[in-house]
Design a protein that fits this description.
Length: 733
């Protein structure tokens, strides 16, 4: 630890001498050897345990036979007891067997093995009481899921719980950067790795050992035998339980400008429900009451300047939330992608550097994640540098060999493009520039951050099947289609889900005041009518149930097709309808919304700004939601709308095509209306049919609502598919 600390310190100040490197190398070699010895010991114990379990099973079988025979021969009960005792040597042996503790010691070593040469950092803040002790998550309980919970209390008393200084013993980014691949570091680390890999491989083949459990009274029991205690439900993820770190530039409800925030808020919870140990890492743009300072402070160099970063932590809804705090994040709390290109880039460089080291520095529930069985999930260009840092700083140097990365494409239109000179801000080895260099007719030769992430990540996810395909086309790839095609072997489309707690008409907190009402399928007509009336009243529109109320919610940019609504506006204003639009973004489009309202005050309301409450009330109070997006990777508002019995009218593109099935009056199927061409005529045609159905075909309308509301739109489905991608990444070299 001491040596490693010196190592860290030396490199952070940028003055590491030759002898310091020599010391750190030999320290790491020593650590490697220790790990090898531990791993060997571990394998021996596993073999021993296997033998013991086989013997136990055999003996139990024999004992049962003998007891049966004995009972039938009507021998005296005293003799019977003696016979039972004697004929179950396995059990008697186990009672006094040191293997009792071996079970936990195997687990204990696995935990420390996963930390490899990374002793876990203490938590100064907790010692000093910055965070109330009661707020500390209950560590190592079933609920926490993931690897640590599996290891249970065996970790207790391990090094992880010894308060140490908050200086990590794992080499910092700068340290590992300096370690050469050919050094003893990598070879010993690789040696240890291969042993761990062997063990993983046996899991892969399904060679799980039978479980030996220790009952409450210290009675050994064999799972599945007559005397076994109730077995705790295994995690849904089964043997694929992993440590997952989701890294995103925004995370709802703390920070959100659009769908990325929703996903970063909901996907982690769904993965945690499957039993994974899950962390989400996001910037701390403001002061969040539910996350406490951990006392861990680090410095990262960006463009020659040292930046101090501190880490905040909160355990919420089964997920470790880690917020990275630094002054440059505070300045943009109301405009998180604001500032000039270089400022945004510097923030993201700093964030990714800080995030990739979270598993070593931030003790969540007392225990850092370490690198064993670890998957990073990066999102969009903002965090596309994370897979690159993981590779360049660690894996290229034989470290974090079991960590994998997935990059999720929420919107490939934003790529973090800039001049090649931006490369100097990133602190990467020179040869990495080739991963960023892209030429296309629009941008010429430039630096492309999304591209580097796509190339480097172990797996890529696009947020719908349709979008996975579109990204590979010239129209949908925005210059990266060639790169995506080249890497399509690792690409998969997974449709986003809905956060059931946040978006459900039964529980929606924005519907329990002001005349609104929560509702469900059972009282849909009544509940939705109340919401519609309350919303019309709130907006100052005529309160009428017979008029179709249309809604639009979205970032105001080219993507969302506000101009298509503008094209259809003259026709729409001739109809008996009401329209409410909520959005913020491009100034010209904001003005367009304002002018819609000022020209048609009797029918239109425009809400320029960001209001979560209004978004929920639109979703509940409207009859129809318009989504004429020019492209839409997945789209969440149409999913929310269907969940609330509001019918989507959408341009059939990307995720909208995947999720909204066009209504077919002949077979009485479908959940909305779609149009194929992104223009006013297409929208008018689809909207006209929708409004006709609303007025004249009530039963069909109700059927569409019911089908939409009863679909399984939960994150649980998507989480299962993410898990499959994580497993694929895990076993990929
Ligand atoms: N003014 C406003 N006030 C309040 N809430 C507002 C709002 N404007 C938008 N929102 C909310 O932000 C979210 C936007 O979701 P979208 O799926 O449309 O996201 P976006 O295009 O940002 O995200 C990208 O990522 C997501 C997630 O993967 C993909 O679904 C999507 O297709 C892709 O473009 C919704 O929750 C919506 O209610």
């Amino acid at each position: 630890m001491g040596k490693a600390q010196q190592h860290q310190g030396g490199d952070e100040s940028g003055s590491g001498s030759g002898s310091m490197e020599e010391i750190s190398r030999s320290t790491t070699v020593e650590q490697g050897k220790r790990i090898l010895a531990l791993q060997k010991d571990l394998l021996d114990q596993i073999a021993e345990r296997k033998k013991l379990v086989t013997a136990l099973k055999k003996n139990l079988g024999q004992a049962a036979e003998q007891v049966k025979a004995y009972n039938s021969s009507e021998t005296s009960s005293t003799d019977s007891a003696v016979l039972k005792e004697e004929s179950v040597p396995g059990i008697i042996g186990l009672r006094s067997s040191p293997m009792h503790s071996d079970v936990s010691s195997v687990e204990k070593q696995e935990v420390s093995g996963s930390q490899l040469d990374a002793p876990i950092t203490g938590n100064k803040a907790n010692e000093s009481g910055t965070k109330p002790p009661s707020a500390m998550p209950p560590i190592l309980t079933e609920k926490r899921g993931g690897l640590v919970s599996q290891f249970g209390s065996s970790v207790k008393g391990s090094k992880a719980f010894e308060p140490e200084t908050n200086t990590p013993s794992f080499p910092s980014l700068a340290d590992v950067f300096k370690l050469s691949k050919s050094s003893g570091v990598s070879s010993s680390a690789q040696g240890a790795s291969s042993l761990v890999q062997e063990k993983k491989a046996s899991h892969l083949k399904g060679e799980e050992e039978p479980t030996v459990k220790v009952g409450p009274s210290d009675e050994p029991v064999i799972a599945g035998s007559a005397n076994s205690v109730t077995e705790p439900t295994p995690p849904l993820a089964g043997p694929n339980v992993m440590n997952v770190i989701i890294v995103a530039a925004e995370c709802a409800p703390w920070s959100k400008t659009g769908g990325l925030g929703d996903v970063a808020g909901a996907l982690p919870k769904a993965l945690a429900r499957r039993g994974h140990r899950v962390m989400v890492v996001a910037p701390r743009y403001g002061s969040y009451p539910d996350a406490w300072e951990t006392g861990v402070r680090k410095r990262y160099n960006v463009a020659g300047q040292d930046n101090e970063v501190s880490y905040f932590h909160g355990y919420i809804d089964g997920v470790d939330h880690v917020f990275v705090d630094t002054p440059s994040f505070h300045g943009v709390s109301n405009n998180i992608y604001g500032g000039n290109r270089e400022d945004v880039l510097k923030r993201m460089v700093l964030f990714c550097k800080a995030a990739v080291e979270v598993p070593w520095h931030v003790p969540c529930g007392g225990v850092c994640y370490g690198d064993g069985n670890l998957i990073f999930v990066a999102n969009d260009w903002h965090t596309a540098l994370l897979p690159v840092y993981l590779q360049a700083y660690y894996r290229d140097n034989g470290l974090m060999e079991f960590a994998r990365s997935i990059l999720v494409i929420h919107n490939i239109a934003h790529q973090g493009r800039g001049p090649l000179s931006d490369f100097s801000l990133m602190g990467l080895p020179e040869h990495y520039i080739e991963k960023f260099r892209l030429y296309d007719p629009v941008g010429g030769e430039h630096l492309n951050i999304f591209m580097a992430g796509l190339i480097t990540a172990h797996r890529i996810v696009a947020v719908s099947h349709g979008y996975a395909w579109e990204c590979q086309t010239q129209l949908g790839g925005w210059g990266l289609d060639g790169v995506v095609r080249e890497h399509n072997w690792k690409l998969r489309g997974i449709v986003n889900g809905i956060d059931d707690k946040e978006w459900s008409p039964e529980l929606d907190v924005h519907l329990n005041t002001d005349g609104y009402s929560n509702y469900s399928l059972n009282n849909l007509e009544y509940g939705k009518a109340l919401c519609k009336a309350a919303f019309q009243k709130e907006l100052g529109l005529p309160v009428r149930s017979d008029v179709p109320l249309l809604g639009f919610i979205g970032r105001l940019d080219n993507q969302k097709g506000v101009d298509i609504i503008a094209d259809a506006m003259p026709w729409m204003m001739e109809q008996d309808l009401q329209l409410v639009m909520l959005g913020t973004g491009r100034a010209d489009l904001e003005n367009m919304l304002r002018s819609f309202e000022s020209q048609h005050r009797d029918k239109v309301r425009a809400w320029v700004g960001f209001s979560v409450k209004t978004a929920h009330r639109i979703t509940a109070g409207c009859d129809i939601l318009l989504m004429p997006s020019r492209f839409e990777p997945c789209g969440l508002n149409q999913l929310y709308a269907m969940r609330y019995g509001t019918i989507p009218v959408v341009h059939a593109v990307g995720g909208l095509r995947d999720t909204v099935k066009a209504f077919d009056p002949y077979s009485n199927t479908g959940t909305g209306w779609t149009f194929d061409k992104a223009d006013g005529t297409g929208l008018i045609h689809a909207l006209g049919t929708a409004m006709w159905t609303f007025r004249d075909f009530k039963d069909s309308w109700k059927g569409i609502q019911e089908r939409g509301m009863t679909q399984d739109l939960s994150w649980d489905q998507a989480a299962k598919q993410y898990e499959e991608v994580m497993v694929a990444a895990k076993y990929q070299w």
